[in-house]
Amino acid sequence: MNDDDRPRKPKVIIVDDDRDTREMLTLALELEGFDVGQAANGLRLISAMHVDRPDVILLDVMMSWIDGFELCRAIKKNETFHDIPVIFVSARKSVEDERAGIEAGAIDYFSKPLDMDRLVGRIREILAGRGAVQLTAPA
């Protein structure tokens, strides 16, 4: 079986300026069968999306250069990437922050500390709803 015959793993990109958070999420999602990319900020996200289009973007709110809300709005205005689901993952927990995330175009908003089972379940649900690559839980 060559690489083209293997089912493609869904691609998730994590955008967070905190390296420890990116590494923790990457490890957890890879164990769940996802192909995971990382970006430390919005500029790196944009260049990464042109190279390897993600199926889902996990986005922090508080970042340098541009905050997550502005970055999400920019993604949703972009003709090429507007259809990629964005999920906020943030230490900001207020109802106003959640509302701002959804209004910016995100499909969901998760507060830290994360419930990884809930997050993984939501990513799978979003991918299934989009007819994207199906994942089976690792044995």
UniProtKB/TrEMBL annotation:
The keyword rRNA-binding does not apply. It comes from the Bacteria. Transmembrane segments: none annotated. GO terms for cellular component: cytosol; protein-DNA complex. GO terms for molecular function: phosphorelay response regulator activity; transcription cis-regulatory region binding. InterPro entries: CheY-like_superfamily (IPR011006), Sig_transdc_resp-reg_receiver (IPR001789), WalR-like (IPR039420). Keywords: DNA-binding, Phosphoprotein, Transcription, Transcription regulation, Two-component regulatory system. The modification 4-aspartylphosphate is found at D60. GO terms for biological process: regulation of DNA-templated transcription. Residues 11-127 form the Response regulatory domain. It holds the Pfam family Response_reg. This is Response regulatory domain-containing protein.
